[in-house]
TrEMBL record:
Record-linked Pfam families: BPD_transp_1
Domain ABC transmembrane type-1: 62-253
Name this protein carries in UniProt: Carbohydrate ABC transporter permease
InterPro entries, sorted: MetI-like, MetI-like_sf
Organism classification: Bacteria, Bacillati, Actinomycetota, Actinomycetes, Jiangellales
Keywords annotated in UniProt: Cell membrane, Membrane, Transmembrane, Transmembrane helix, Transport
Amino acid sequence: MISRGERLANYAVLALFAVIAVYPVLLILQTALSNDQIGGGGSFHVENFADAWDQGHFGSYLRTSVVVAILVVGLSTLFSVLAGYAFGTMRFRGSEVLFYVILLGIMVPAEALVIALYFDLRELGLTNTLVAIVMPQVAQSTAFGTFWMRAYFRGSSREVVEAARIDGAGHWTTLWRILVPMGRPALTTMIVLVFMWTWNEFLIPLIMATDESLRTAPLGLAFFQGQYTSGTALLAAGATLVALPVIVLYLFLQRHFIRGMVEGAVK
């Protein structure tokens, strides 16, 4: 039984961490709604978001980020489910070695590979294209997703799988009609994490594409910062616009996300 003092101490610690987490967000919002002009008054200036949107061309950058995120999340999720199911439920020669080779995708940082990857893609004529931005991120995300889904499939109920096999279900039916619906929290957690990493990716779009039409939102924000180093309100408004999709997605899927993280920690 937790005493009242311990409960109050827990709430105090949680409140402290909540303040630490929320304060930077509120500070950015306050800056985004402020006026950079001297003597401009203390009222809120919502028009800063419209000015940042127009001057920073964030409409184009956000559209590119959405396309890239959809492609990366969709492809990596498909590959991760298939590979995770194979490594988690099947036993075949070389499976362990192959699994650890795939894990190199999350062990080796992108900074160590991006230059060599750039020259390889340039030889194939793929630089400055959407493929050059999407495929390296698909490879990275698939490595993590395979690790994540393998853990889920290994911890899934053996009785349910065996019952499906007895009823004549093959691997394809067992995977998509039984295990994937059961693993919705784990799958949702993986999708949110991959979307967040893809949306915030800066290095790969910077190296692989020089065309302005292929700039993603974080890259566009960096160029916008170079143009408006003194306009902190517009910079804060642009940063808010870039971060907003990730926040909205997390708020929409937070219940499944937290459930998937807790189940993964328990397993």
